[in-house]
Amino acid sequence: MKNLGKYYMEMLVQLVNNHRLNNNEDQRLTKDVVQMAVRAANVEGDAEHQRLLAVRAINEALEKDDDEETLKALQNPKAKLPSIKNFAGPLYREELQCMKQEKQASLDYDELYTGVQVLSAIAEVNKAIEIKDPEVIVASLSEEDAHITNIEPDYAEKYLQVLASTREHKKRHGSGLLTHYMVQHCVNQVNNQAIEENNQIQAINKINDVIEEGSTMEVLASLQQPTARLRNVDVKNGACYHSLLKQCKRQKAEELQDTTAALWYQDIQDTIDTTNILVQDAVKLSMAVAAANMAVESGDQNNLLNSLMNPDILLHSVTSECGQQYLSSLKLYKDQKAATGDCGSGWMMNRVRDGSKFYFNVITKEYAFERLEQVKKDHSLVTRDEIQGCISEVTAAHDRQLLFKANEKFIVLVQSRIRGYLARRKYNERVSFLYTRLPAIIKIQSWWRMICERRKYLWRLSFLHSHCEAAIKIQTFVRMYLQRKRYQTRVDYFKQNEEAVIKIQAFMRSNWAKKDYKALMHGVNPPVSVVRKFVHLLDIGDQDYAEEIEVEKLRQQVVTEIRTNQELENDLNMMDIKIGLLVKNRITLQDVISQNKTLKKYRDSSGTLSVGGNSGLKALSKQSRERLEAYQHLFYLLQTNPTYLAKLIFEMPQSRTTKFMESVILTLYNYASNQREEYLLLKLFKTALEEEVRSKVQQMSDVVTGNPMVVKMIVSFNRNTRGQGTLRELLNPLVKAIIDDRNLIINTNPVEVYKQWVNQMETTSGKTSGLPYEVNNEQALKHQEVVDKINQSLELLKQATEKVLSVILSSVHLIPYSMRYMAKVLKNSLREKFPQAPEKDILKIVGNLIYYRYINSAIVAPDAFDIIDVGANKSLTNDQRRNLGSVAKILQFAASNKGFGGDSSHQAPLNSYIMDAHVRFKEYFLEICDVEEPEVHYNMDQYTDVTRITKPIIYISIAEIVDTHKLLLQHKDTIAPDLSDPLHELLDDLGEVTDVGSLIGDSNTDDGHHSKVNMGKTEISLALSNKFEVPEEDQSDVKSLFLRTKRMVVDVIRCQTHGETLTEVLNIPATQDEENDHSLLIRKRERMDQRATKKTSLVRQQSMAGEMRLPLEQMKQKIQALLREIEKQGLVSSKDNYQYVINSIVQDIRNQRLYRQHRKQEMVRIRNTLKSLESKRAFFEEQIDYYNQYVKTCLDNLSTKGNAAKLHEKGIVLDIEELPPNQFKNVLFEIHATENVGVFHVYAKFMGVNMEKVELVFQDLLQLQYEGVSVMKMYKAKINVNLLIFLLNKKFYGK
């Protein structure tokens, strides 16, 4: 082939050179080598020939204007061109044709190769535009093959917008692909636009800089910058621009509370426009004022009126009837003003609408907003304000004259009445002088006469006694001198030995005091002489009474506050229910408003009703008094004998027991507000619990599964009253640590974790995940992501649980004593009922009481049990509640020794931890039960009530009294089967149950049920007393006799100073001084009792009051008789001189200090309780405010949002019934925000025709997503819930 000669030559030369390089001696080519070179040359020549043919075919296709043929020719592999994009056929044809036309000849291979390489890169740019991703756009533009220059990555968004806009424009006019020139042009356009914007920003920044610091000329120059692109800038208004811009900038800084706030372009442009308008108005005003001056100068009344009525001059109160007066007044004022200064300059100053000064020259028509050097005031011109002053004065005088003319008769009448009034007043003053001054004159005269006579008498008396006083005085001075000399000698001696005397006295007193105190506190049988020195400590002083009064007041406040909070909490719970029903459209808004009015009464109420009158329970009548005492005796018996109430609890239906406990039992024991009531309440709980275990519990599991009545009462009492503070102290730090940890998310439910994972993927990406939406636990656990999340949650759960468990196990001291003692009673009762039961099973029951019933609920719902402070308009999130519930569940399993299995087998890794925690829990429950008896803990015994300063007082409502009386009558045969039981006698004293109105003293009880209920809530105080207390003459009760004897012995020992034993003291006669000391002691005690009675209802026990007033000798005889009676019973003995009585008194002295300490501690505890109750009430009131705001919001409902776009292009619509997918393009969904926040109206159009409207509630969508529902139906379409939420967040809430 002769056409391939050059290829043969090149190949052979290459082979020869290769042989030479390989140092072959024989450089001749063999036949085989030459044949191989020929074949290679043939292949290379044939490929070149085929490429030339392909290039020729490409040029021919370009001449035919056929996109497909051109694309096919370019894709010919023999052409050996770069990669061709299938979608860019029009782009290749268009651009290559342009290259061919510019060359005016066929394109060769190199030109085609370079062109295709560039156009393929441009095609990738077009493809990136369709993706609408700024980062992809920048990457495609930055490709070297694209040959696009000046690319700035920061302008990626703008490149995308301009390129997309240009492509849409081109698509409407032909091909939709951008050429290289268009792409480069768009890039240059964006770069230039960015430069212009940067220049404009710099110009605006410069304007902001010179506003505060620059001059007016600098501000004007900055406003005239071409790069600022500001309109209508007038050089004459530069000063005004500067002033208003500075004011606008400061105002914006105040609004934004940012001193660095700058004016934006629109702010500056608006200020310029406002200034121009202001200048125009100011010029019009000044021209109108100048016209008025000219009219005054010429004396033309009509022209003056026309000028004054010109709206540009902004005058008011102008009346056409006063034209001449206006002219005269202005002429006079103008002449007077002209005489005060220079005239003829033509400059005057007027204030515009905003108060700014505006200087205007009526001659040259120049103006300025600042007083320039050439501005000189022309005193011959009047300003607008001066004109207004003259007009107002003239108009006022005109109006006043018209008023006088219209009311001339009335004015004359008023003047005449005033003159008459003045005349009468003058006459009355004269008469008053005559009647008032004359007695004073007479009195002054008589006083002066008295003074004169007294002076004469005193002078005479002094004269008569002057010598006698002198003698007495001399004698007195002599006696004083002698006595002082003897005393001073004695004092000098003591001063010389003062230190020694003091040391001796101190040492002796110290030894005697230590010896006596040691004998008192530690001696087996302290002598009477020692007891006598300390017996005064048993006296009840003013401080004791004051503290007792304070304690009783605080108890009353606590009881009242507890009742109020309970009623308020119940009504708030009802409000929660009604609002929930309102949200679900189960009730109307009117029902919620009605309940809201009920809440307001707690703030509007000023107190409870008063009980009294002439016929009430506390009326001043014998019948009322006897009934009151009968109730006091009855409630004392119920309070001190727990058997009655314990039996009554089990006689009542369980549905009423809780209410009965809250309304009567806690009231009867004053909500355990002091040690006595708490001690008695624990005795009741103990009796009732032992009875319930003995008679109601058949298996130990009944305590756990049967919800025992007494256990529920015990837990309710300890959680809501006594134990609330300690429970909060124990759990508050733990709960807050869990809910405040934003990184703590515990969810061990495989289905929920799966759905959250799918929702998160779809919400984040905006695309469907392709995974099924409904799965079971087994299917969910097949996904490794779900398993990883659950394992992570289990590890977090274990860590959180361990923190809570460690604190609980180390805080036994924070569990209330009453709760620990009830656990001990329950443990002992179960041990007695089931002696063969293992200890571990009994401890499980104890754990159910301590942890599950008492602690667990407070962890699960800390806001409901006041463990944490939550605002009325706030609540715990679902994640926070799930975290707390998960921790509580693990602790519950540990307390009951349960593990995970079956459907919860994915949580089985926690079983080993649960077993270990159970072992620790058992030790904890044993420590809980290790507690002392109430008698030791509260220092109570059978003598406590007899030795109390005051009677126990309870605060109880009338309705509770009636209900208790009624229940006792119904069940008296059951709770007191013995007819001789004291309860029957007390109920017989009371008789039949009376109604509420009779006890209150109000006979008008027919006003309806609501009135009866309100009267039933009226509270009274009952001073409880024991009807069966032993009288003085009754010798049957030895313990009471001993107490009476001991009290009298204390008085005798204190007043009689002789005798070393009690027998000696009683046998030695009392002296008169000792009798007098005893009388003083009685009177002092009576005065203290009277003061205490006046201040409060506290009353000393009356059983001993009479015998404590006996004279000392009679009291000693009474004591001897009582001692003989007690000795017969074997309690004391005369052989040891009745030392047992003295030892008992010593024990009382020792306990008195402890009692006072307990009382002070009780005051502190009650104050803390009251403070907590007030805080809780404040929280409830905050909830009331929140509910008020909620109801108000329900009535207002004002807010709007923006519009929505198409939905069918976003992949949200999954399917439409009876419509094939190729018809989806004819369906359009539009979402519009409504007046109600979170509520949207969805409109559907098919082929442009409106269909029905549907209301879409955003809260309902969130609920569906929370429940795991991923697909909902709307119209005939199936909608992806997650993607719809994603769209609404993006379009309406900017998320």
TrEMBL record:
Gene3D superfamilies from the UniProt entry: 1.20.5.190, GTPase Activation - p120gap, domain 1
Gene Ontology biological-process annotations: mitotic actomyosin contractile ring assembly actin filament organization
Keywords linked to the UniProt accession: Coiled coil
Domain Ras-GAP positions: 663-896
Residue ranges the record marks as coiled coil: 1156-1183
Matches recorded under Pfam families: IQ (PF00612), RasGAP (PF00616), RasGAP_C (PF03836)
Protein name per the record: Ras-GAP domain-containing protein
Protein's organism: Paralvinella palmiformis
